[in-house]
Design brief:
Strand order of the largest sheet: 11-7-6-8-9-10-1-16
Largest sheet: 8 strands, mixed
Oligomer: single chain
Structural class: alpha+beta
Length: 651
């Protein structure tokens, strides 16, 4: 998976703004609230860092990761590449020329190389999942459907504000950022194709419905009054959801080989071939078109029998929380809710009968900043007094359009394709080792009280945890948002800095004073903060190196030795892949490890606590998510201990 964001603060719509829209008609009129894209033309283009700067940073970054012999070879190739008049300068000049001709020299390359050409399933490997705070009393259908109706309507209002460019601009701190992710998250879908996938996006008049999945069946649900631009009321949406459930009772759950959504869980080339067979039938193509063009998919899930009927996420034990999070990551398998998905859809929201709810983001269209901002906005509304101002009984006195069940005409060959997808998905589900816990001892409040960056504090803790388990320093990825640039996506923060390595190697030594350990820790934090600022400012090294390599390929030039060096592949194999997802709500986000023998770690730093999700693969004998989670908890506490230990008087 190619990860999310490191963001600090996001301006959000006030509840008063949305209150004024409760009778919104979906045709733009009147005075704008504030143009979402008004800063777009003022955003700078992504810069191309100086070649010599990147070469120096590259050598520094790989130092802790290579042995002496590997480092000497790498140094030789770097010097060869960077010499005056050499290949590096030629490629740098070509890349700078590209940057002058394009709004963002990286964006199309990144989309294709990092996402659309990626051939593993999007499930686990690409798409991150978010678990919302546990919703109370969702075992009662009327409570669950009322929440879903409010959620769907507010999502449609949000989309209207995006489509008409009146949503307040998205900001990180006080800086406006690129709005393109917002525009792509709804009414869009990934499409499997041989070798490299495609994407489709739909205009507002082409996307006036949502698709609701229930019991592995799909229903088109209108969001507007017939022949009108007036948005349906929550009771009218509730009425439609009732009809969906009535049309798909448990007795109608299709056999596994007819659960079409399972096809989307396969590897991309296999799914592309299966899709060609599926869409040879016009009825199937119409059903797929409805899914692709819908605003978003709403998945009404069955409760998980392995989770107690409780209504407070704080009461979950770690096993239950981990199971709840995997519902979003992969649906818990064919026997549970995996067939109740269309994994190519950009935004899916799952609503569980046990109160487990969340979202799934197909990552090629957008990163975490706009996605989490949207989730926060929707949850704000669902918790508001306006959302509770109507009763489920109100739905009985209103009329609403009839949901339309999507129909499939499945050949024997397609049924075999579905069975193959089901078997492979269940193997993947069984292979995922996800451990989720809430670190409750302290949160970012303490970290700020000792004048340390919370994100850097946490990242150095991850380094310490891994070193204690494996006695080595490994390539470590944290995603930094480059959304302050036009069409900006992400850059890599390499957390395994020389300073972090010095700290992890000395933290447990008895012959090192506490004062020295504290100073080493502060040096590691400072180095991480510096790297983060540079990465977010377009001064990272990973995307620049990728650009230089792709420039050589596009120009038909020989690939330079620096990129053929075995150590180059080694330092880009991220055994620790991480992302911070700050949210005002108690969200837990998870994703799969990006290498077979690595960990995927996501965290939501809150003032007094921190939800953390750790993933790995059971098939790797050297990884253990529970063990890594315990090591992270211990590292956070031990660093807290050295920072709180009184320093000795120098008198």
């Amino acid at each position: 998976m190619l990860l999310l964001i490191d963001a600090h603060a996001v301006r959000r719509l006030t509840s008063a703004t949305f209150q004024s829209l409760k009778t919104l008609k979906m045709a733009s009129s009147g005075r704008k609230l504030g143009s979402m894209t008004r800063f777009q033309h003022t955003l700078p283009n992504l810069p191309v860092p100086p070649l010599q700067q990147t070469m120096d940073k590259y050598l520094r970054a790989v130092g802790p990761l290579l042995n002496h012999e590997e480092m000497e070879t790498t140094r030789k190739y770097v010097e060869e590449f960077r010499k005056s008049g050499g290949t590096g300068e030629v490629l740098q000049n070509l890349l700078e020329k590209r940057a002058k001709e394009k709004t963002n020299w990286l964006s199309n390359w990144w989309l294709h190389v990092a996402y659309l050409a990626y051939r593993l399933p999007v499930v686990v490997h690409v798409s991150p999942a978010t678990m919302f705070p546990l919703m109370p009393h969702f075992d009662r259908t009327e409570v669950r459907l009322k929440f879903t109706s409010n959620y769907m309507r507010k999502l449609m209002q949000w989309k209207h504000l995006v489509d008409t460019d009146v949503l307040p601009p998205l900001k990180v701190g006080n800086k406006p950022v690129c709005s393109s992710g917002r525009q792509k998250m709804t009414s869009s879908c990934r499409v499997p194709r041989p070798q490299i996938d495609g994407q489709v996006m739909y205009k507002p008049h082409e996307s006036r419905h949502m698709v609701v999945a229930h019991n592995c069946q799909f229903f088109e649900v209108d969001m507007f009054q017939p022949n009108s631009n007036s948005l349906l009321s929550p009771p009218q949406l509730y009425r439609q959801l009732e009809e969906v459930i009535a049309m798909s009772p448990d007795t109608t759950i299709p056999p596994v080989n007819e659960r079409v959504g399972l096809l989307t869980s396969n590897d991309r080339d296999t799914w592309a071939e299966a899709r060609q067979r599926l869409t040879a039938d016009n009825m199937n193509m119409k059903s797929i078109e409805s899914i692709q063009s819908c605003v978003a998919m709403i998945c009404l899930d069955q409760p998980n029998p392995n989770i107690r009927d409780i209504h407070d996420i704080a009461m979950y034990n770690d096993d239950e929380m981990s199971i709840a999070c995997t519902r979003g990551l992969h649906g818990n398998g064919v026997a549970r809710n995996s067939g109740n998905r269309w994994f190519d859809k950009t935004m899916q929201f799952y609503i569980g009968g046990d109160g487990g709810c969340g979202s799934v983001l197909e990552h090629s269209f957008a990163d975490g900043l706009p996605a989490i901002d949207l989730v926060d906005t929707l949850l704000d509304y669902c918790y508001s007094s306006e959302a509770s101002s109507w009763r489920a009984e109100d739905a009985q006195s209103v009329s609403a359009p009839q949901p339309r069940k999507l129909v499939w005409n499945l050949s024997d060959e397609t049924k075999r394709d579905i069975l193959e997808s089901a078997e492979k998905l269940d193997r993947l589900v069984d292979d995922v080792d996800l451990w989720v816990f809430v670190f409750k001892h302290f949160g970012k409040g303490f970290m700020k009280s000792v004048k340390q960056s919370p994100d850097a504090y946490i990242q150095v803790s991850f380094q310490l945890a891994y070193f204690r388990l494996y006695q080595e320093t490994v390539p470590s990825y944290e995603s930094a948002s480059t959304s302050q640039f036009q069409l900006g996506r992400t850059e890599t923060i390499r957390a395994s800095t020389p300073e972090a390595t010095a700290f992890t190697h000395n933290m447990d030594r008895n012959d090192i004073s506490n004062e020295t350990k504290v100073q080493l820790f502060k040096d590691a934090v400072a180095a991480h903060v510096k790297y983060t600022r540079e990465a977010m400012s377009g001064e990272g090294i990973d995307r620049h190196l990728l650009g230089l390599k792709l420039t050589a390929q596009e120009a038909g030039l020989p690939i330079p030795n620096i990129f053929l060096d075995p150590s180059f592949g080694k330092v880009f194999s991220f055994k620790i892949s991480t992302s911070q997802v700050p949210s005002k709500h108690k969200l837990v986000l998870c994703f799969g490890a990006v290498v077979p023998d690595g960990y995927g770690i996501c965290y939501n730093p809150r003032e007094t606590e921190m939800p953390i999700a750790v993933s790995s693969f059971c098939s790797c004998p050297s990884t253990d998510s529970g063990r890594m989670a315990a090591a992270i908890e211990r590292a956070l506490l031990d660093i807290h201990s050295i920072l709180k230990t009184p320093t000795k008087s120098k008198l």
